[in-house]
Each structure stands twice: as C-alpha cells, then as structure tokens.
C-alpha cells in the first residue's frame, strides 16, 4: 500500500491565539498559555530466552500548567475558600483550540483537577503581572478532535 499524505495549505496550521479554557464553566479571558499532558509509568517485563526489555503500563498521571495575565485573583479564588475550610480544592477545566482556518477544533475536558500551589502575592516593579498555576488531573475526555 503506498504511503498516503494528507496535503494541506499553510493556513491549516493551528494558531494558538484561538485557544481558550473554562474553569468550572468560567471563561478565563486573560489566558496566555496552557498545556496538559499524561505521563505513563512502566514496569519492566522480562521473558526467558528473550534479550529485549519489555514494558507494561502501571500508572498514569496527568499534569499541566496555565498562565494568565494578572487581572484578578484567579489563583486565590480557585483555592482560598477550600483551603481555609480544610478541604481539597477540586475543579474541572475545559480546553478548546478552534482556529477558523483549521481542519476542525479540539476540545478536551480535564477532570478532578487539583492545583499544586497558590500564589498569594507576587509582583515586580515595571513588569506586567502574571499568574502561573501548575495542576494535576485524574481523568480527561475528548469532546472534539481535528481530523
């Protein structure tokens, strides 16, 4: 079977400017950067008379990071109430990448999101403010994918 190549015009390359997120159904308008990934831990599998190392997935973990322009107290709002009550702050994040020139859009729901730290107060003279939030998630669902 000959190799099939999907041809595309340059305009089909996704532009991150069209990326958006919602945290617990609240649109985050000051978003600058977002990333999320799944890490896979493996155990070694060995077999008699076989010199090759084998691998078996033993654990998954999801982690990510989002950066916003500092226009409000997003980090404090996400965690302060739960922390002050001794509870675990948990939320969901919906990510969308929908460039109108692209072959389609991606939408992913990240579930059971917990944030690793809360930046209470941070600024630097003559520098625009940012909030950087690192998080972990337990599950995700693919709602839309680019084909």
Describe, in short, the structure shown.
This protein has 147 residues and is mostly beta strands.
Known CATH architecture: Roll
Question: From the alpha-carbon coordinates, what is the Rg to the nearest angstrom?
Answer: 20 Å
Helix content: under 10%
User: Under CATH, the topology is which?
Assistant: Pnp Oxidase, Chain A
What's the main sheet like?
Answer: 8 strands, antiparallel
Describe the structure.
- The protein contains one helix and eight strands; from the N terminus they run ββββαββββ.
- It is mainly beta.
- Strands 1, 2, 3, 4, 5, 6, 7 and 8 form an eight-stranded antiparallel beta sheet that branches.
- It is extended and about 60 Å long.
- The relative contact order is 0.24.
- 7% of the residues lie in helices and 47% in strands.
- The chain has one domain (16-144): Phage tail tube protein (Pnp Oxidase, Chain A), CATH 2.30.110.40.
- It has one helix at residues 74-84, and strands at 19-23, 26-27, 31-45, 54-69, 91-97, 106-115, 130-137, 139-144.
What descriptive keywords fit this protein?
147 residues, mainly beta, 1 helix
Q: What's the SSE blueprint?
A:
Elements: E1 19-23, E2 26-27, E3 31-45, E4 54-69, H1 74-84, E5 91-97, E6 106-115, E7 130-137, E8 139-144
Antiparallel strand pairs: 1-2, 1-5, 3-4, 4-7, 5-6, 6-7, 6-8
